Structures are given as C-alpha cells and as structure tokens.
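Quarterly update from the structural biology core.
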Amino acid sequence: MNILDFFQIGVYLLFPILLYLSFFVPVKDFVIERNKFYFSLSLFLSFFMLIIYCKHDFNKIIFFSIPIVIAYLLKRKNIALYLSLFLLIYCHNLELKNFILILGELISYFLLFSFLSKKENYKKVFISYFLFLKGIIFLIYRNNFLMILESLIFSFIYIKLILKLLSNNELIVDLSLKEKEVKKEIEKERRLKTSIFKLTHELKNPLAVCNGYLEMMDLSNESKTKRYFNILRNEISRSLTIINDFSSFGKIKRIEKEELDVYYLLEEIKDTLKPMFNNRNADIILDDDKEIYFEGDYSRLKQVFVNLLKNALEAKDKENILINIKARELKDKVKITIRDNGCGMTKDELEHIGDIFYTTKENGNGLGLSYCKEIIDLHGGNIVFKSIKDKGTTVTLYFPKLQTN
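Predicted structure, tokenized:
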C-alpha cells in the first residue's frame, strides 16, 4: 500500500467521527440517549465505508478492526459485538484460513475486554494487544516488513486520533450536562423569587382592605362592626388562598368552580374596595344588575377583579377617578368590560402588558397581571387590553357561559 491508500483509509475512518462531532453533539439541546445513538451510527458508518471502498484486500483488513477496537476502548460492548458479527459475515467468502484467524482475533478482543475492562490501564493494554496481534497475523502471511510497520503505525495514529477527538467530545458532554444543571438551578431560583414576589404583591391587596376597614371600624356601632368583621374574615380567607396558591413555586394547583352571579360578585368587590376608593375620591359604576351567571372560583376571581380595579385606581395620580364596569352575555361567552379614565398606555407598553416583571408603576413589580392571566387561563377564559395614552384603558374579560340543560 502507498501513502495515498493510508490517507484514504484515514478519511473513511475519521469522516463519520468528525461528522458526528460537528453536527450531533448539540450543546444547547443535548440528550444523552440521542448522543449515544449518533455515536454508534458514526462507528457503523466508518466500518461500512472501509468495507465498501477497500474491497477484498486482506492487507487492509487490519483497519476494518479499528471501529471494533474503538467500541471496546470506550466500553460499548454491544456495538463492538455487532460490528464483529458484520465483519465475520463479510469475511465468509474469503479463505477459511483467513476467516479462522479473524474469528480468533475477534474472540480474543471480547475476552480481553471481559477480563480487563475495569483495570486502570485497560486502554493501553488493549491498544498494545491489538497492534501486537495484527503484527503476528501479518507475519504469518510473510508480508513486507516495511508495509507491516507502516500499517501498524497508521493504525496506532488513527486510534489515538479518534480517542483524542472523542475525549474532547466527552468534555463537551460534561460541560453540556453541567450547563443544563446550572440552568435548572437558575430556573428553580427564578421561580422561587417570582413566587415570593407574587405572594407579597397579592397579599398587599387583602391586607390593604383589612387595614382600611380597621381604620373605619367603630365599636360603638354594633351592626357596622359585624358587617366589617365579615369582610375582614373574607379577606383573611382570601389571603390564605393566595398563600396556598404559591406553596408550589407560585403555580396554582387547581381551581374550585361554582355557579356565580357576575353582578353579585362585582358588587361585593365594590363594597370590599370602598375604603380604598373613598380615600382617592374614586367611584365604580356598575352598568346594570342583570343576572348573568358563569362558573368560576369565587376567591380567585375576586383576586383578579381586585387586581384589575386596583390597577385602574392607580392609573391616575389625581382624584376623580371613574371606573365603569359592564357585563354582557354573548352566544357562548360572558363578556366583562372594565373601563377607566386613567393615564392609559402607549403602544409599546401595551405590547408588554402581562409580561412577568414588566410594570409602568414606579413601585410596581409586574406580577399582578401575570397572576390574573394564570387564573383566567385556568377558567378557560382570556383577557384583552386596549388603551390610549392620556385617555384611559379598557380591559375585557371573556369566560365560558354557564351551560344550562
């Protein structure tokens, strides 16, 4: 064989490995099982390229064993056994003497792997044995000593080069796995922080209501005091519901639906927020009191409307805030519209509304609306925002209509 033959064999051996390293070891989307599959595929491709392009040249059969040796060196026994089987099938039409030698060679590799694979210097021993055995086989056929030496040297170079390339791949794999673990930890920490921010944000609303009614409470007026106590009890219960919602990194586990009267719910929320609105000389106008029913989780929907109305209240720095609420029955939905005369939003602000941590408020954190959206999604509804800068904002909510038999 001349130097060009050795070069071509190197291409057949290395090209699939390089292809695997270049295209099938994606750091950003790494999956161990998929990586193993592509690596196995690259070894099979190297093996079959040698068989196809090297023809029935016994002098080149030394290189046919290299993919098998690589599989054993990397402790991929199953791949090595499959490749060995294919090599034996390929050699069935050669002389019986050659076939017996190759069979004995492959059996010796398997036995060596079985006894030495757990030893510290396993790779060095296996490579030395492979070169020694190939040298003996070539001497049996009394081949040219220089050709034998060249074949063994190039075999050693190819094996070491492939192992070096694959060791770099292992480094990439380790880095990829570590990166995934770091990302998981970062995401876990982010979710935890988000949960804490959401919790503190949502607890402000019932606590503010409780504070407002405690300031208004007059113990000498028994009837008013009892009414305020009921409101306080409901707000404390709502606070506990919020805490439960965030007990699993802020993800609401489930909702409990019941038949709700839209205007009864809105009227109760209006009464609940009365102290807060009185302090700002603000007013809520309910369009009418027509009975409209849908199914929903009372406590959580109350939190949604409290958030939206509180946002509307804080949407204007001056007094005389007016919020108009109306509900309508559509064919298969209930439509609730909340319109305020606040400062409104620009087109760019409107595009980011609802994004986590995005806010237009000086002391806001952008978590209230993301929490609202989560609740509305669990109800099978959706929310739409329309706004004009310096004119006001309209929020429209859609919920599935209550199905009656």
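Residues 3-183 form one domain.
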